[in-house]
From TrEMBL, chains A, B, C:
The gene is uxaC. Belongs to the metallo-dependent hydrolases superfamily. Uronate isomerase family. Pathway: Carbohydrate metabolism; pentose and glucuronate interconversion. It comes from Microbacterium aurantiacum. This is Uronate isomerase. GO terms for molecular function: glucuronate isomerase activity. The lineage of its organism: Bacteria, Bacillati, Actinomycetota, Actinomycetes, Micrococcales. The keyword Isomerase applies.
Length: 490, 490, 490
């Protein structure tokens, strides 16, 4: 960025392109071919209700600060250290409006001031990079955040939020989004998607089938999940065969609502199926509340194999992203809720884990598996070699903690050699921060342009090929990786 | 490359050198010092019979497409996706002539057309980089592959293959190969090497002793391997002492045929020796067909220790490259044969695994161990610290999936700090694609020139030192790392 | 460097800055803001007696060669290979004065000549980089080491060592060291620190509390360690409660002597506490000599948790650096002594291991944990996500084998995205080579300037922010990460 007091604030047109002069010029040419392409956002967490309601956003803090738990976690991580964050009064997430309890800050302007004061803590993070884009490109912010500018910025954004052009659907149009996939529980009524369809938005916003809690039989909430699934599917899911039938029924409902994919996030990537009698025994033990941890892991693995089988039948793309220890901090998970910054990656094995699934379905002409990881070690060692041989497998984009300029570059450097470009799935933003979607796709296209630009500058690829590849990465591959199942509403 | 229609096709002289202007100029100077040095190819899979027969190659497809399973796997990985590969009619390896069965394509021109159509799928892969070199530098191809150029290219290459200058021995001379090591089963008759020796090529093409199947006592073929070993060695290998004697005898025969090294590729790097009574018990159990998987692993580890001991006696260099799960896809392995694209790496431990061997032989003045990995994680964590202290240990070049421009650069960046340059073994091409050998060595020298050029440009090394180092990496270290054993034929 | 015969030897002012012209210029500006800042050296192994005695150094070899086991190990690793090291007569560490026994070389000039002959083996290593700085900047060496210059260099340095300006305290002043932390056994008398305090140096050189051997109950020396602890603390440490009391007492003594931190280097990062009865049972078993390996690991983990609890009470910063298999080579450890080059890293888990400690103390306002690793894999996968959420946790600098130009760059690239700059602790030199301290801090500042310069050149950070960040990394963060405990002598 360039921020000169009194002259406004603008983003540099070459931001996030390689600094080297020779590469930058080529990268700029490549980026020009993709910068205005529509956004295909096939894996994210935007709330469908946001677009169904199309209500104005409330205020800058509840839009940009409190719900962004990656911003909140970074500010909280500085709460004990002398410095601007602590000086601004941040001791815990509650001081930024997150979590509940009597001490939670409720005044949006106070929260906004704390965020502005803590701006230096975000230096060089992707959170900062995306926020700059949101502030400048979406809200025309005139100055960068600081204690001195906090109030003016707040007022500036609040003013924009009151205008019709800043409502969610207007932004959706302005952002150039072609297709947005949300993430939805298996038992979801999909009511918001029906409302969207009624307004003619059914082919622009589609659900994704995410049944994770149903496959975790040792968790306290499992019985409730079964009941909800039974209700939603209109099939009694309390024995194993009914459970499979109910899942198939829900997948059909999702397909009818436009879904392209399923999504699975368990600790392990294991996909070993169980013998029929063994899975029935486990299911019944779980029903009696006596499933052991090893039973739970075996059941999850078995169900991932079942999901692959169902996908090979109904055409939903299967997405897998294992390797994160959820709710790492028990006390915080209880207080703040699930998945709010305390999910921490662990080393994750894919080669042996995916073997049963890939031997069975890896060459199936109707099956598509997209695998994500937050363990960079497996890129060159396991995932690229697998994606470079199995027609069914594509590598998902760098995800979560790896969705950053340097990590996206490392992803390309580690996988393209062995997997090529065309066994990757295209960028996914994986975000619930709707306003940040263009920033994230823009950044991804810049990094890919830089990577391709280097290949051209090193005479490893011709410029025409690099431009064609960039367009494929931004548009062809996400469209092609998530095709509409045959029976889809369209 | 530069490919302008009508103007022929040439490779850019600066290809694969760093794009940065300051570094590139230095790198070019460094590369100039190594570009025409002879090739010392100490670890590969060229068939000795190819050079013993010296017959003309049959056609472009059976030379460059069908046997290159890394080309085949990449094209097949695109078989289910809309795009040029599928459009060209590739559904499986059989469509490229690989595998057997009634449906296997036999027409070389059809196979060649499919390859040319699938060319875009290879963008940025090392396969593409090497093929460009082969096409342009070896066969003077006038245009790059595409559906439009396929037939002309085919005819062009077929015409060259009919000329005496394109027979294997003529190419060997043209490539400037000083020494080529093949890989040979322990029970090999070494007949092809004898034919080469009879023609005066015995000091240019030498065998390598690879006894892997003999050390896998739980595999179905083990009994047959023992019988073959007994026959070849003229020693009954059906009890453990005879087994060791037969191995020693075969090693002597290999040394007499010019061998410099042994080569060992098992799943684990474990080198723990067993007590004498334990190994005899395991051997006898295996003879009865009752060896368990853990017995098999223990026996493999024990035999690696024995190989180190024998190497310290007879002077054969020991090469170790663990960490690949072979024949990952059971159905494909049965249909296509072994090691044809479905070998996938796994995380591999070296520190604890090599300890018994290194404690016993790591300072032995006659012992040399060269270790390869496809798990990049161990470069800086395990292998560089080990190579930086044990006189017997050298790190092998980046191998297999890591034999690529970016991975070769990462190798130097990860190991030179701790291991220095002089504890690495020099480049090995590890290929069965004879015509690609110059391309691979040329690329390796370019990457090393780029790495050294950066050190010079960052004032971390003087130019004269960088040039001397580059020559050592290309020539001194491979020669020195694989010395002729004392008793070698010479 | 630039070394032109006859013109002296000087270090290039831009050394270790990025080669790219655009980045380098920015990096130079950033580096200029930190190059003369005082050195805050909070984690090292300089012998306090060196500064307490302030005696002249004996000779160049015993200063720069023999005690630098990373220099010695690299030269020894070349002992079996044809080349300059072997030609100079190096067969083992004894030939460089290291280890004991009848054959150990005692003539410093001979040792120095061997080092100078072996200089090429150090190309591109950090040892070489630091030595150049020491030779040129500290000792004004006129020529680089080589067989031809060895004697002149020896005489030149020996002449300097005889001058008062080259005594340890004079060098300390010249180096601009603000604060130096040593590493001291829990039972240390801290006599050298008392002598320093008596000379007014007590606030410039402070001890660090390192109780490792006390937490390894299965090691032969444990009983002796308990006795020494009891004596030093004046508390009977032979039952578990007394053991804790004695540790608390020693921590108080260290705090009184100016200590800022504790330091813990065990194989694992596990911090699982034991129930009271279990730990008493283990302690008593250990007293009887019957602790099993798994008991020892459980006790170590328990004690790390106790150390965190004590730190939350007394304010000593807790430093953790697991993951190294010590004394890898049994025979060498016995002959050469401990920790002399044969310590080799292993893969190390942090996410699950630190969980008990972080759940209990990760948000404690008085607790500070600094974690180091030699396993780069965990940077982006485990440590950055943890440091980016827990206020108590900071990432230590790249350490030991990772304290190199390229590895320091990789550290920033891997962690800053998720942890930011301000959850890192600043550089630590971790060295016993006193004269190399300025070289190490200088190099670290150059690498950080290069990293920040790239962010500026890629328009991801403004120059003013980059300069401020560089100063914080060099000065603010090390000061702030190691605050004086409340009860500290000051």
């Amino acid at each position: 960025m360039n921020a000169t007091a009194g002259q406004g604030w603008s983003l540099h047109p070459d931001r996030a392109l390689p600094a080297d002069g020779g590469i930058r010029e080529v990268a700029r040419t490549i980026f020009d071919a993709t910068r205005t392409l529509p956004i295909v956002s096939m894996h994210g967490h935007v709330d469908a209700g946001l677009l169904a309601d199309d209500a104005p956003y409330a205020d800058p803090a509840s839009l940009l600060v409190t719900p962004d738990h990656y911003l909140v976690r970074m500010l909280v991580s500085q709460a004990n250290a002398p410095g601007p964050v602590r000086d601004a009064g941040v001791r815990s997430a509650a001081d930024l409006g997150a979590g509940d309890g009597g001490s939670t800050e409720r005044d949006p302007r106070t929260i906004w001031r704390r965020f502005c004061a803590g701006w230096p803590a975000l230096r060089a993070t992707p959170t900062r990079y995306w926020l700059e884009h949101v502030l400048v490109e979406v809200f025309e912010a005139p100055v960068r955040p600081s204690p001195d500018t906090a109030d003016a910025l707040y007022d500036h954004i609040a003013d924009r939020l009151a205008q019709p052009d800043y409502r969610p659907r207007a932004l959706f149009e302005r952002f150039g989004i072609e297709l947005l996939a949300t993430t939805d529980a298996a038992a979801s009524s999909l009511a918001d998607h029906r409302r969207l369809a009624a307004d003619g938005w059914g082919t622009r916003v589609v659900p994704t089938f995410r049944p994770d809690p149903l496959f975790e039989i040792a968790r306290p909430g499992w019985a409730g999940e079964l009941a909800a699934l039974s209700d939603a599917a209109g099939v009694d899911a309390h024995d194993y065969d009914g459970f499979l039938d109910a899942l198939r029924a829900r997948r059909r409902s999702f397909i009818a609502a436009g879904a392209r994919a399923t999504d699975h996030g368990h600790l392990l990537a294991d996909t070993t199926p169980l013998a029929a009698e063994d899975v029935r025994r486990l299911f019944d033990a779980a029903r009696r509340g006596s499933a052991r941890p090893e039973d739970a892991r075996a059941f999850t693995a078995h169900m991932l194999f079942q999901m692959a089988e169902m996908s090979s039948e109904d055409g939903l793309v299967m997405q897998l992203h294992p390797g994160v220890l959820r709710d790492y901090d028990g006390a915080r998970a209880e207080r703040l809720g699930h998945d709010l910054g305390y999910d921490i990656p662990v080393a994750t094995e894919f080669t042996r884990s995916l073997r049963p699934l890939l031997e069975a379905f890896g060459h199936h002409p109707r099956f598509r598996l997209i695998v994500f990881t937050v363990d960079e070690d497996v890129y060159s060692r396991e995932l690229a070699p697998l994606a470079g041989v199995y027609p069914a497998l594509r590598l998902g984009a760098p995800w979560w903690f790896l969705d950053t300029p340097d990590a996206m570059r490392r992803f390309r450097e580690a996988v393209v050699d062995t997997a090529g470009f065309y066994n990757t799935s295209g960028f996914v933003d994986d975000t619930r921060a709707f306003c940040s979607i263009p920033a994230r796709h823009d950044l991804s296209r810049r990094i890919d342009a830089g990577f391709l630009g280097r290949l051209v500058a090193e005479h490893r690829l011709d410029l025409d090929e690099a431009v064609a590849t960039a367009v494929d990465l931004a548009q062809t591959l996400p469209r092609q990786s998530y095709p509409a199942p045959d029976g889809a509403a369209a």
